[in-house]
Amino acid sequence: MTEQLPVGPGTTVTLHFALRLKDGEEVDSTFGKDPAVFTVGDGNLLPGFEKALFGLKSGDEKVLTISPEDGFGQHNPSNLQEVPRDQFGDDIELEKGLMLSFADAQKAELPGVVSEFDDKRVVIDFNHPLAGRDILFDVAILNVEPAQVH
């Protein structure tokens, strides 16, 4: 039998994964769908998630805990922005947790979530919704192969 290649730099990995919060809420999953395929370092997976897979081989199944530092970062209070209430049209019904789309200085789309509001101001949270959370990364490695160099 040939030596199985472990996940690491220079490999392409086919896997099923699920992202869950500690309370069991599932955020994303490929189980029951097509598996995900990525090449280590291609940017499809956050580096902390990639590193957690290093050394795993085809057939391995694990539940890994990804800390905020290795996942979506810590919640950053400076990512809370206060916007005057009159910047929002009367047609927008504000509610806590409402996700809105904004444009940053480069005109790129930037999602923000209403965290609080009153008649005069609206506080928008531009942190990633999973910032500051430990993520349970449930993985099933289906295949590990050398990355194709183009």
Description:
With 150 residues, this protein is mainly beta. It folds into two domains: 11-72 and 132-146, Chitinase A, domain 3 (Roll); 77-125, Thrombin, subunit H, CATH 2.40.10.330. The protein contains one helix and nine strands, in the order E-E-E-H-E-E-E-E-E-E. The protein has one helix spanning 47-53, and strands spanning 11-21, 26-29, 36-39, 61-66, 80-84, 99-103, 109-117, 121-125, 135-146. Strands 1, 2, 3, 4 and 9 form a five-stranded antiparallel beta sheet that branches. Strands 5-8-7-6 form a four-stranded antiparallel beta sheet, with no helix packed on it.
What is the fold's blueprint, element by element?
Blueprint: E1 11-21, E2 26-29, E3 36-39, H1 47-53, E4 61-66, E5 80-84, E6 99-103, E7 109-117, E8 121-125, E9 135-146
